[in-house]
């Protein structure tokens, strides 16, 4: 039966209103853990800052890179009740090898953290997402900052410069602002042996009065890392954490590996289609949960669009790529990550485990199973995949990072007309797909509403 656009709007509103969804967790007692011998404590760092400077775009400075933080956000944080500040952290940390062997003690370091937080306690939900900055591109990248999802929930987000490559990139970009930073112990440790201790020290500083959060009181501190940073965090979780003080309450490993150890700290593992390369998986447990998102890419459209103008501002141009297929999947992996954060908070504070998710399916020949449109089967199926208007996959090839970008190929008009004879029917199908994901816990209401707006103003029948 064909459904009019007006009726589809009404259906959409009813379906979203009926979605069974949990919001961000609020203050509850943390699940009890068995007593144990206290491990060596993490030394709290000295904190200097906020580092002064003019905001991006101030024409009064001949060298703007000396006046504001590297990759300072271009989002209107003030409108969301947020502020962005940068701090220097210094102190001493232990050095660890890749299997957790102690290589040195009390090694000096100085690094920086970038903080985006609510300006007032009333706006703060009590949780800090502490991101291990990604350095795969040769500079610090806040891969897991997503303005809308973080600010609307009231999270604080903190990016930690823990690795040598990132800090060296900062020093080159602005010797005046970052020239004194060093995470190598004066060149003694150049393979990021200090990174684990530095990351933990940042978390310790987040729990100190005032300091990095400007007086906000953090109840829950999460560790998060994407891609290469997730790999570094596996070493920390598997091999370093058992020997040191626990400073994080839960862990989010995104589009990268996850630890093999099953400790008491909850681990959430979110993978794009790009990252799922084998049907062999670690099973879910009481402290480990794995989600796989069909059609999404390791580095998709959302992040690329956000960073392009900022990289142009700070580097003169954003990188461009010649890929074998049109790049950048439009499937919003960040919607699923946002839902995962909320689940992770409830898991750490209440002991409420997240829902399990279906895995991506594989064919008999070991390749990913695909439907008649070329879309991956199985996994978490957002409405952009369940009600497709384009081929979105996690696969691509070509130069440098193309393998990580996935593919986006819009369907032609003939195919859209065959799939969706009316706009109303299309919009209603999107609403039903989002309602399923809301009830399953894979999507948050605000993101479902954004999908609804997109469906009403794009897709079949709009030109």
Model description:
The protein is of the alpha/beta class. It is 29% helix and 17% strand. The chain has 12 helices and 11 strands. The strands form 2 sheets. A 9-stranded mixed sheet has the order 1-2-3-5-4-6-7-8-9, sandwiched between helices. The protein has a two-stranded antiparallel sheet with strand order 10-11. Helix 11 runs antiparallel to helix 12. It is globular and about 65 Å long. The two termini are 23 Å apart. 47% of the residues are buried.
Question: Can I get a quick summary?
Answer:
The chain has 463 residues and is an alpha/beta fold. 29% of the residues lie in helices and 17% in strands.
Estimated helix fraction:
25-40%
Please count the helical segments: 12
Structural class: alpha/beta
Give the distance, in angstroms, between the N- and C-terminal Cα atoms: 23 Å
**Dominant shape:** globular
The parts where pLDDT drops under 50 for at least 5 residues are 1-35
- What is the succession of H and E elements? HEEEEHEHHHEHEEEHHHEEHHH
Beta strand %: 15-25%
Task: Kindly report the average pLDDT value.
Answer: 91
Extended strand count = 11
Rg from Cα:
22 Å
Largest sheet: 9 strands, mixed
Main sheet: strand order:
1-2-3-5-4-6-7-8-9
């Amino acid at each position: 039966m064909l459904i009019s656009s007006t009726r589809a709007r009404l259906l959409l509103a009813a379906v979203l209103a009926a979605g069974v969804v949990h919001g961000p967790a609020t203050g509850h007692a943390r699940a009890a853990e068995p007593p144990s011998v206290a491990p060596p404590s993490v030394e709290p760092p000295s904190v200097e800052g906020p580092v002064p400077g003019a905001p991006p775009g101030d024409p009064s400075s001949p060298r703007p890179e000396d006046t504001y933080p590297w990759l300072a956000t271009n989002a209107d944080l003030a409108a969301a009740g947020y502020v962005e500040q940068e701090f220097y952290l210094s102190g001493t940390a232990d050095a660890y090898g890749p299997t957790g062997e102690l290589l040195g003690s009390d090694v000096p370091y100085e690094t920086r953290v970038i903080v985006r937080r609510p300006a007032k306690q009333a706006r703060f939900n009590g949780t800090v997402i502490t991101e291990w900055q990604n350095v795969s591109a040769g500079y610090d990248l806040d891969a897991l900052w997503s303005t809308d999802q973080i600010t609307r929930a009231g999270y604080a987000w903190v990016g930690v410069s823990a690795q040598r490559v990132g800090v060296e990139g900062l020093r080159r970009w602005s010797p005046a602002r970052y020239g004194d930073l060093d995470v190598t112990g004066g060149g003694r440790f150049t393979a990021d042996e200090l990174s684990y201790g530095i990351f933990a020290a940042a978390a310790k500083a987040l729990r100190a009065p005032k300091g990095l959060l400007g007086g906000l009181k953090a109840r829950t501190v999460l560790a998060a890392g994407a891609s290469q940073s997730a790999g570094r965090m596996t070493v920390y979780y598997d091999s370093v954490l058992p020997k040191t003080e626990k400073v994080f309450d839960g862990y989010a490993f995104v589009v990268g590996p996850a630890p093999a150890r099953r400790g008491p700290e909850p681990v959430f593992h979110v993978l794009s289609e790009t990252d799922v390369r084998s049907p062999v998986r670690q099973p879910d447990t009481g402290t480990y949960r794995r989600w796989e998102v069909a059609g999404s890419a390791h580095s998709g459209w959302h992040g690329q669009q956000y960073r392009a103008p900022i990289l142009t501002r700070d580097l003169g141009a954003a990188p461009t790529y010649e890929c074998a297929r049109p790049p950048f999947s439009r499937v919003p992996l960040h919607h699923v990550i946002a839902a995962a954060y909320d689940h992770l908070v409830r898991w750490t504070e209440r002991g409420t485990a997240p829902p399990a998710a279906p895995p991506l399916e594989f064919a008999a020949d070991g390749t990913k199973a695909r439907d008649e449109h070329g879309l991956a089967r199985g996994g978490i199926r957002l409405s952009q995949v369940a009600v497709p208007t384009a081929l979105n996959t996690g696969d691509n090839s070509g130069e440098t990072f193309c393998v990580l970008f996935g593919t986006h190929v819009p369907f032609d008009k003939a195919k859209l007309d065959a799939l969706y004879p009316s706009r109303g029917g299309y919009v209603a199908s999107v609403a039903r797909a989002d309602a399923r994901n809301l009830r399953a816990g894979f999507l948050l209401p605000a993101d479902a509403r954004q999908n609804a707006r997109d469906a009403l103003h794009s897709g079949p029948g709009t030109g």
